[in-house]
Amino acid sequence: MGDTLEFNNIHTEVKGSWNDGRLRFGKQSVVYKSHKTGKVDSIPAPELSAAQWRRVCLGHGIKLATGSGDVYRYDGFRDTDFEKISVFFKANYKVELAEKDMCVKGWNWGTAKFTGSLLSFDVSDSPVFEIPLSSVSQCATGKNEVTVEFHQNDDAEVSLMEVRFYVPPNTGDDGSDPVEAFAQNVLSKADVIQATGDAVCIFKELQCLTPRGRYDIRIYPSFLHLHGKTFDYKIPYTTVLRLFLLPHKDQRQMFFVISLDPPIKQGQTRYHFLILLFSKDEELSLALNMSEDEVQKRYEGKLSKNMSGPLYEIVSRVMKALVNRKITVPGNFKGHSGSQCITCAYKASSGLVYPLERGFIYVHKPPVHLRFEEISCVNFARGTTTTRSFDFEIETKQNNQYTFSNIEREEYGKLFDFVNAKKLNIKNRGFKEGMKGADGYSDSDEDQHDAYLERMKEEGKIREEGDGSDGSEGDSDESFNPGEEDDDVPEEYDSNASESDSEADDADSEDEGKKKKPEKKPKKVVKEKKERKPRKEVRYISYISISHE
């Protein structure tokens, strides 16, 4: 038995949608990394308190519980994996992997059990279904009834909107209301955003590019509140994936980008990124709405009660402390002009692409973030409108393609060296290295493969062959004999036709003066029109067979 166990194609359920990833059991911790978002869940080994092996829809699954009440569920194991995982848990975690059967009786009457952040509906001590309370968006009560509503996930094909529980009236003498008790247990762990208490701090009239407008941002301990003239957004910190601080190419402005999953919604529009634009010259003095001791105790020196400096630094510092995420900044890449970004166009808008240490990010419309681990290959292509620019194409492992066009050719050498240093798969490496000249780019189009041109050449060859076959069949007609002297008579489309006509006119004029010689009769040129055979049409007919059972 090794020090680690790794499993690929392990799935976890996120608000009704399955995300696949890689799960690794190590001596010190259990680590799961999602392939879709790149988010990493790490469970320290000393915190594991229980583990269950269950039969689920995707084969077999593991349910892990920690001492703090957190529950993690991973599905996609095979039946043969149970033995080695069980031995590994006993040897390294001192936890027994217990087998647990699910109830499939179909009953709708049972017992609701609250265990940490999980609601389990059991029948005869066997779970029928489980609800992660972090997926609950609202909880309402009625007479002997509790309605639980859920957050929606755009990636889910089918979404569960709500579940209603009938709670029988309490017959005890303690006087407590079982409906209210049930609702409080749900709300205590649910992801319900309620603006209770005062905000930690408020930033007034910040310029926001996505969604567009100026918003007042209120910072609460557990969520972010954007208040605009038309829309309000409440963003839990748990939905924040990454933070980016990016300098503008003009060196006078800064972008602060917040990556969100799930995104915020405005009608039918989804915003996966929140982009703020700051001026470097804008200063701010901020006082947090709490005492110095409370700030020190809660944020462990990351913040102080009174702060002053550039506005973008204050906002990024506060967000880093509350969200507890690292801020990503551009790495060592320097473009032709010395900036850390490249001007380009994506779809119909112009923007900036930033080569980072672990990916690329494009701002601002629409924002795109691509991690190196999800990139299949990149391609350097010539610009479609001019040779003074080129296109940079990125293809992901999910077969999605992103094309950043109209990049200045002076940026080619820097970008090519960066991609090569990061060991990304370059689709046309040999072609591009041969094309690379003194300035890093060549305007020659001779080596470029044109599929359309090749197809037109093939069609031309087919037509010529068809014309040749028509002519050979026309030679056997009785109106034309290749053995006669008429072969020397030029055709009307021959280049020598005009010369022969002029010579014939001169000969006629001389014959008029000489009456001894008989008058020559003009040769009759029999011109036949070669009839082209009609092109053969090939028709493809698809047959659909219908079987009657």
TrEMBL record:
The keyword Mitochondrion does not apply. It is found in: Nucleus, Nucleolus; Nucleus; Chromosome. It holds the Pfam family POB3_N. It comes from the Eukaryota. Residues 458-549 are annotated as: Disordered. One of its GO terms (cellular component) is FACT complex. InterPro entries: PH-like_dom_sf (IPR011993), RTT106/SPT16-like_middle_dom (IPR013719), RTT106/SSRP1_HistChap/FACT (IPR050454), SSRP1-like_PH1 (IPR048993), SSRP1/POB3 (IPR000969), SSRP1/POB3_N (IPR035417), SSRP1_DD (IPR024954), SSRP1_sf (IPR038167). Its main location: nucleus. GO terms for biological process: DNA repair; DNA replication; regulation of chromatin organization. Component of the FACT complex, a general chromatin factor that acts to reorganize nucleosomes. The FACT complex is involved in multiple processes that require DNA as a template such as mRNA elongation, DNA replication and DNA repair. During transcription elongation the FACT complex acts as a histone chaperone that both destabilizes and restores nucleosomal structure. Belongs to the SSRP1 family. This is FACT complex subunit SSRP1. It comes from Sinocyclocheilus anshuiensis.
